[in-house]
Specification:
The structure is a single chain. By secondary structure, the chain is of the alpha+beta class. The chain folds into 2 domains: 4-103, Winged helix-like DNA-binding domain superfamily/Winged helix DNA-binding domain (Arc Repressor Mutant, subunit A, Orthogonal Bundle); 107-251, Serine Threonine Protein Phosphatase 5, Tetratricopeptide repeat (Alpha Horseshoe). The chain has 10 helices and 7 strands. Strands 3-2-1-7 form a 4-stranded mixed sheet. A 3-stranded antiparallel sheet has the order 4-6-5. A hairpin with a 5-residue loop joins strand 1 (4-6) and strand 2 (12-15). The longest helix is centred in the middle third of the chain and has 27 residues, at 152-178. The protein is elongated and about 70 Å long. The model has no long low-confidence stretch (mean pLDDT 93).
């Protein structure tokens, strides 16, 4: 019975027959505290660090005692999730730690692991394996992360998830291109550009796949859009690599 911890989308715990939904966590601060501790489950977190994660900026004077109340309620949440043993929130010597069973599955960790394995499968040329693994990474990384909260560590995690999503989409696009499925590759490359409008490798891939699909005119329009964006927003021209893709398509008949 492997516990499953969801930190993206709706925060939740699945453990056997037990399901703790987001609304069952002890309020907004309790949910934030749980997510922060779960993200750092392989180390102890200093009490001051946890206070800053829950109450960034000017924390109210009662936050220290408030933290004790939150931790107590989270212990009750773990018990309600069926963790009779093997999971606990410990606090000692000014440090707090969330201890989960060794086999616990945490979605953000699973996305990172799936991405690493997908990229390895691409390098080995095992495209079916890369496809399924990259999809796992994309599905998890697309979910919102604590959308009703703001703090530097939250924004940092959102940026990390966007990076995972971008790399996973690159894997999917590579698999589609290798499998001679240009329309799918176009879809993934377009998603990459939506995520990062200045990613030239995505424009290169999108141009190449439009040309492979027989739409040379659209490939050239993609280049024009890339050139205009880079000129207007950054004051630069496309890279030599992007220019080379453009010229190759331009000369092709």
């Amino acid at each position: 019975m492997t516990p499953r911890i969801y930190l993206t989308g709706a925060v939740a715990i699945e453990h056997g027959e037990h399901l703790i939904r987001e609304r069952q966590f002890p309020g907004r601060q309790g949910r934030i505290a749980f997510v922060f501790l779960a993200l750092n489950r392989h180390r102890s977190v200093h009490r001051e660090e946890l206070l800053g994660a829950i109450w960034p900026g000017d924390a109210p004077a009662q936050t220290d005692s408030g933290l004790d109340a939150i931790l107590s309620k989270l212990r009750g949440t773990l018990r309600a999730a069926g963790f009779a043993a093997g999971a606990a929130i410990t606090a000692s010597s000014g440090a707090v730690a969330l201890q989960l069973p060794r086999a616990a599955w945490v979605d953000i960790e699973a996305a990172a692991n799936a991405l690493d394995e997908a990229e390895g499968a691409v390098r080995r040329g095992v495209m079916s394996e890369a496809w399924s693994l990259a999809n796992v990474a994309v599905v998890i990384s697309k979910r919102p992360f604590l959308p009703d909260a703001e703090a530097p560590w939250i924004e940092s995690q959102r940026v990390a998830l966007r990076r995972v999503q971008m790399r996973a989409l690159q894997c999917l696009a590579t698999v589609s291109a290798t499998n001679a499925e240009p329309l799918l590759a176009i879809q993934h490359a377009a998603e990459m550009i939506e995520l990062d409008p200045f990613r030239e490798t995505a424009y290169q891939l999108l141009m190449t796949m439009h040309a492979a699909a027989g739409n040379r005119a659209e490939a050239l329009r993609v280049f024009a859009k890339c050139r205009e964006l880079l000129r207007d927003e950054l004051g630069v021209s496309p890279s030599p690599q992007t220019e080379a893709v453009y010229l190759e398509i331009l000369r092709a008949e």
